[in-house]
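Summary of Year 1 activities. Much of the first year was spent building the evaluation harness for sequence design. The harness presents a backbone, in tokenized form, and records the residue chosen at every position. We chose the following record to illustrate the format because it has been used consistently in internal testing since the harness was completed.
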């Protein structure tokens, strides 16, 4: 289950949009994790990992950094990591597509609260167990594509390294 979603600008830690699961008892507990999420965003730098999962007591934070914006969620420990990152990618695509021109200029916290309904709608999709299989298939397909691209790059770099070594040996003899 996704308990908290926070979208914030990394440069200054400004929260742009957020949602919290609607449960009175959980809200008190989740509030402290919301503060941790904000603190986490404030500590991020351009060299921070673009994707990461962090243990926070009985919960997990998952975040995605893209173009100066951090998309972070808090889930229970049983929530699938692949599902979490698929959710974050879906939110990132929607958010950036809708607000990309305003992200760097906005100065008011939570300026994009109207994005809340899109977050809730997407949460329902990713919380539905029937969508789980489709989501996992889509994520697996994306992972295979990333691996293939990375493997091609590795082969090209190895070929270049071998060529330079061959040239070096020719010069030596």
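For this record, the design step produced the sequence shown next.
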């Amino acid at each position: 289950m996704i308990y908290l979603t926070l979208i914030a600008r990394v440069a200054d830690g400004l929260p742009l949009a957020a949602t919290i699961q609607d449960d009175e008892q959980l809200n008190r507990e989740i509030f402290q994790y919301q503060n941790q999420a904000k603190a986490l965003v404030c500590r991020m730098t351009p060299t921070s990992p673009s994707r990461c999962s962090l243990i926070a007591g009985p919960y997990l934070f998952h975040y995605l950094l893209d173009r100066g914006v951090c998309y972070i969620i808090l889930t229970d420990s049983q929530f699938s990591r692949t599902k979490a990152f698929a959710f974050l990618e879906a939110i990132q695509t929607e958010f950036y597509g809708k607000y990309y021109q305003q992200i760097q200029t906005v100065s008011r916290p939570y300026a994009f609260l109207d994005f809340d309904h899109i977050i809730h709608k997407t949460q329902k999709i990713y919380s539905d167990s029937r969508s789980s299989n489709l989501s996992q298939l889509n994520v697996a397909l994306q992972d295979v594509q990333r691996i293939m691209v990375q493997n091609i790059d590795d082969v090209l770099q190895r070929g270049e390294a071998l060529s330079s070594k061959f040239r070096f040996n020719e010069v030596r003899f």
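The CA atoms of residues 28 and 35 lie 12 Å apart. Quantitative recovery figures across the full test set are reported in Table 2.
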